[in-house]
Amino acid sequence: MTVATKTKSQQSHSQQAIRQALSLCRRHQQPISLLAIEMSEVAALAAEIGHERTQTVTQHIGRVLNTHKRCEDILVRYSTGSIMLAVLPATPATGANALAERLMSQFEKPLQVDEFQIEVPLRVGVHTSVDNKHITANRLINDAVKLLRQPGMHNHILLSPQTQTLLAREAGHPGEHNIVEELLQQQQGSSTAAFIDTLMPALSAMEEQDRMILVDRLLELSTRNPSRLACQ
């Protein structure tokens, strides 16, 4: 297989994964977020420590991202090979930004490779789309990747204009965020039965049609995450 064929294969796989996640979010009217993750200054790093050690750094980045992403997230390589895409289904701007910060925190300490201590030069572009009716996988990828191509931008986390707007909007409705945080805390601090009992009044008050949508979402989640142990 030639390099060109590999590149086309990677691009096709990336787009297929994003199309599936986009279809799910569109069906359930949920946002979708993408993180475009790139090791910057690759040429300069390779000149300093050598190509093989640079490859070791790249592999380390891939392992860390795969370990610390969430179960429902999808990690794929962009066609250029130097960019990883993290596809975040049903994730609003606040969640995408928080995940980007959490991933970046994993690279705060220098990486020891032979006699070198390497500060991993990583940047993350964060893009969130809410109105996905006419959005394509290509458009999502381009909107995320182009954040890494902005001249004069040296921030480690780069937010798209859409993401910045959504973050400002979500910050204006703190009550919704507090409810989510409270439920997450209850889920982590209670038994499964107690947590379900907490949800029952709200579930009972839902219309039957809405409950069917919830059942569909739960089944979709079970299909994607067949074993809870796989998420640990």
TrEMBL record:
SMART domains: GGDEF (SM00267). It comes from the Bacteria. SUPFAM superfamilies: Nucleotide cyclase. This is Diguanylate cyclase. Residues 30-161 form the GGDEF domain. Pfam families: GGDEF.
